[in-house]
Fold this protein.
Amino acid sequence: MTKENNAALHKIMEDLKAGYSYGTDRIWNYYNNEPYRFPYFDTRLSIGYGHNLKKYIFWTHFGSSANPVTLRDLEWIITVIFRLSPVEFLQEYIRNDASKIA
């Protein structure tokens, strides 16, 4: 992994652990073949608690699941599920500041 990708991976993990989520506001309405007309944020990556009260990285991308909160699992989610490098992930998805728990 390059230095840039390693730094990006650590940045994503730090943000997730701080309570932020990553996602997109460019949601496409496939029924009308146009973007949604109302403000909408689609969360794709976040940290939360599972049914066993352990923390997990929750992801949504043509399916959804959760993985343990480790850098190795985060890297796997980004490179295998999203098919992006960590740097590309930061360029593609935005951090949702409104999701941060005060």
Remarks:
- The helical segments are 3-17, 71-81, 86-92.
- The chain has a mean pLDDT of 85.
